[in-house]
Specification:
Helix content is 36%, strand content 10%. The protein has 3 helices and 2 strands. Strands 1-2 form a two-stranded parallel ribbon. β1, α2 and β2 form a beta-alpha-beta unit. α1 packs parallel to α2. The protein starts with 15 loop residues before the first helix and ends with a helix.
């Protein structure tokens, strides 16, 4: 099992969306730690994570300052 850290400043010269897709395509589990969740980001992840069982996905976020959109939390659950 290998781990991969992704942030929004890709050193490989590809877009953040493609970086996420490339990392999740072969993943057997995914851990996500992010300050806030937005629908725009969820749209990137939804299809990729949909092929994994729910118990193989962990997401850590916050609702501090009401930035995380409630609709995203409902979609994730």
């Amino acid at each position: 099992m290998s781990s991969r850290f992704i942030d929004n400043s890709s050193s490989r010269g590809i877009t953040f969306n493609r970086e996420i897709i490339a990392a999740t395509t072969t993943a057997s589990s995914v851990d996500i730690a992010v300050s806030y969740l937005q629908m725009s980001g969820w749209f990137v992840l939804e299809r990729e994570l949909g092929r994994l069982p729910a118990n193989a996905i962990r997401i850590l976020t916050t609702d501090q300052m009401c930035v995380t959109q409630p609709a995203v939390l409902r979609a994730v659950l």
